[in-house]
């Protein structure tokens, strides 16, 4: 039987699969939490041992300071994952989580751990920058922006609950909007880019440019839908991940 790493405030293991041959680490979007990936974890268990990352400043970690710098967050997540490398491990990040997963993969490779796959969802390639300043919006405008991006694909909390989460949302947007790619060698990790056909944050062409960041092989999958396409297409996404990981 595979060993289990010690408990960590960073890791949620909703459906432990200690006998699974492969592991998948999930990194949520700006303002998101580990629980966003509960349905995907359930869909992949018990074939894959799924870990969902919980960032500071939300849900049961709400009392902790948020991390508003993506490189710092990548350092912290990579350090936490060092205890979970007892089997082949892939990464899947959505939106902010995609940029974060890429930087975590770079750090893992620097330590001699090459992820089996990097799934990047709903995010442009690292050097494709847009000048965005959502994190500087007033509260009302930030709430409106979050609701618009949801596009009816995910359920958004009512305004009162959403405003409680604004510090984490704002910090996450700052982290991803101020992130700047540092040139370096391409990953050895194979990359799979996933995107919605109508995503306002990334075009299929922009998603395709992730191919430049790996020597390990690349695939692009486009789903009908917006930024949160992976919610209505949960079964298809789970099947793709399961098939890709083998």
What would you note in describing this structure?
It holds the Pfam family Thioesterase. Belongs to the thioesterase family. This is Thioesterase II family protein. Residues 28-245 form the Thioesterase TesA-like domain. It comes from Streptomyces cellulosae. By secondary structure, the chain is of the alpha/beta class. The chain has a single domain (11-245), classed as Rossmann fold (3-Layer(aba) Sandwich), CATH 3.40.50.1820. The protein has eight helices and seven strands; from the N terminus they run E-E-H-E-H-E-H-E-H-H-H-E-H-E-H. It has a seven-stranded mixed β-sheet with strand order 1-3-2-4-5-6-7. Strand 6 (191-196), helix 7 (204-208) and strand 7 (218-223) form a beta-alpha-beta unit. Helix 1 (38-44) crosses helix 8 and helix 2 (70-81) packs across helix 3. The longest helix has 15 residues, at 96-110. The radius of gyration is 17 Å and the shape is globular. The two termini are 19 Å apart. The mean pLDDT is 93.
Q: Features of this protein?
A:
single chain; 246 residues; alpha/beta; Rossmann fold; seven-stranded mixed beta sheet; 8 helices; 7 strands; 33% helix; 15% strand; globular
Question: What is the fold's blueprint, element by element?
Answer:
Blueprint: E1 11-12, E2 22-27, H1 38-44, E3 48-53, H2 70-81, E4 89-94, H3 96-110, E5 118-121, H4 139-150, H5 159-164, H6 166-177, E6 191-196, H7 204-208, E7 218-223, H8 234-245
Parallel strand pairs: 2-3, 2-4, 4-5, 5-6, 6-7
Antiparallel strand pairs: 1-3
Keywords: Hydrolase
Protein name: Thioesterase II family protein
Pfam families: Thioesterase
């Amino acid at each position: 039987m595979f060993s289990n790493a010690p408990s960590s405030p960073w890791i949620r293991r909703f459906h432990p699969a200690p006998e699974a041959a492969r592991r998948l680490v999930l990194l949520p979007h700006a303002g998101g939490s580990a629980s966003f990936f509960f349905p995907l974890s359930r869909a992949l268990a018990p074939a894959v041992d799924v870990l969902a990352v919980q960032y500071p400043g939300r849900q049961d970690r709400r009392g902790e300071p948020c991390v508003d710098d993506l490189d710092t967050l990548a350092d912290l997540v990579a350090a936490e994952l060092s205890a979970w490398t007892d089997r082949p491990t892939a990464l899947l990040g959505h939106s902010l989580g995609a940029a974060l997963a890429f930087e975590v993969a770079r750090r893992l490779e620097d330590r001699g751990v090459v992820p089996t796959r990097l799934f990047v969802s709903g995010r442009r390639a690292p050097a494709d920058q847009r000048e965005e300043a959502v994190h500087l919006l007033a509260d009302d405008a930030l709430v409106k922006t979050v609701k618009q991006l949801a596009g009816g694909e995910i359920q958004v909390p009512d305004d009162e609950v959403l405003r409680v989460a604004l510090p984490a949302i704002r910090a996450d947007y700052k982290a991803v909007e101020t992130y700047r790619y540092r040139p370096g060698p391409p990953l050895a990790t194979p990359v799979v880019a996933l995107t919605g056909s109508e995503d306002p944050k990334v075009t299929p062409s922009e998603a395709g440019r992730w191919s430049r960041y790996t020597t390990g092989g690349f695939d692009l999958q486009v789903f009908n839908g917006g930024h949160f396409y992976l919610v209505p297409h949960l079964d298809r996404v789970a099947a793709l991940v399961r098939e890709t990981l083998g």
